[in-house]
Protein 1
Amino acid sequence: MKLTAEQVKQIEVLLAKDIFYKDIRLEMTDHIASYLEETLAEGDDFTTALKQYMNSHHKVKLLTAVREQEKIKDGYYRNYFLRQFVSPKGLLVIASATSTIYIGTLLGPWMYRVCVFLFTLMVIWFLTGFLGLKSQFILRLKEEVQVYYLLPVLLVSQGRRYFEEWPVLPYLEIIGFGLMFTACYFIYLTNKAYKTTKYA
């Protein structure tokens, strides 16, 4: 029995909560639709057949395959993100961001607060999608490691409180903020790769 577009959409909606990557989700939707088309006879109830499939060992096998594919894709995008830090372009961006912040701090201590505010604003943009900057990379990272990826921000912001007298601290803060702003730019580039790369 041939499935309608509405029925295929129903399968995709059911898979949306279990499968993060759209291309994997579409592949699995196609797999389930093909299976149901083969097994359903004319006049059989689609909803009942779909529920039976979702509660069967077939779905467990499918999700096991999905987790393997997601692991491969996660590794690919994580490596893509980290490789940018050691590329010539990445080193140039880090040097530019760090030197800009350093020059800014020469203007006065308020620059520290401006840096914290701007970095926080960028992270909020990436998470909420404001100005079209919603980042799939950040959403997946958040899903995988919860909020631990924000630990460097906490360390930099609390470092000033505990090591106020330490003469190296201002330089470490500048380097830290330079790396964080660079990471935001690389997250943006990685998100572009998410949209253009169909399969890792």
Note: Residues 97 and 178 are 5 Å apart (CA to CA).
Protein 2
Amino acid sequence: MPLQALDTSILPSDALSFYDNSFYDLVKNIAGTTEAKLLEIQGIRSVYSFLHTDDIFEILTIKCSALNDIKASICLEADDKTFIVKPGYRSNIRYLYKLLHQKHEEHLKEMSNNSTTINRHDFAIHTLNEWINKQGIKFGIPNVKLTENEDFWLLIGDDETDTPPSISCSCGIKVQLGVIRGSISLSNYYKHLKSKSCIIKKKISKHINGESSKIIDDESSDAETSQNNSKSKDIQCLTSVSTMNEPATISKSNKRTTDQDNNSLSKKKRI
């Protein structure tokens, strides 16, 4: 008769990592003290060592004085001196095996789901920032990004059967996201970002306008600097021209003085 799924909640959350005494105590609580001794005498010291042992009762077929006490507890001795394992002990070990094996399967599934959730989350964040960056590039401003848990909050369930993924915008609007072939679709959030009511759009616009204004200011500053440099050069040129003209003026003055002296001497000779 097939067994139904077992309730693994009776196990500690970290049961799969139990080793030595903690493992044997677990076996005592679930299966029994004698069963724990049977595992200990075989050197089965952990959950995974137990799960990888084909038949823990096989050792009882060996004639060994160290096994006599355990064999007397677990087995029935037939008249022909053969030993038969009591069904109850086999049942206890089978239950322990199925319980720990199911716990292991649940652990693997949980790891897989967590990995899928992380991958879907990272993919959504990358896709969103890629779209935002493209919008910025249209305005000539690259590297525009939104910050998670500040500009938006992304909620993704463990799998596709859980609550549909959604994203909460910092403006207070929660947007339901679609799932297409296992991948999250952000088209609904894109529509929201383009709406007039979204403050994120205003933030991006402010960032873009701010960068544009900065560029304009830089260009104006460069133009002003260039103009000042040009004026400075003009002043230097004027100064140079003025300096070059001064010797000519002095020369003309000296010439007038010489002419006056010559005229005076000429008059004296006539007298």
Note: The helical segments are 21-30, 33-41, 47-51, 68-74, 87-138, 187-194, 199-270.
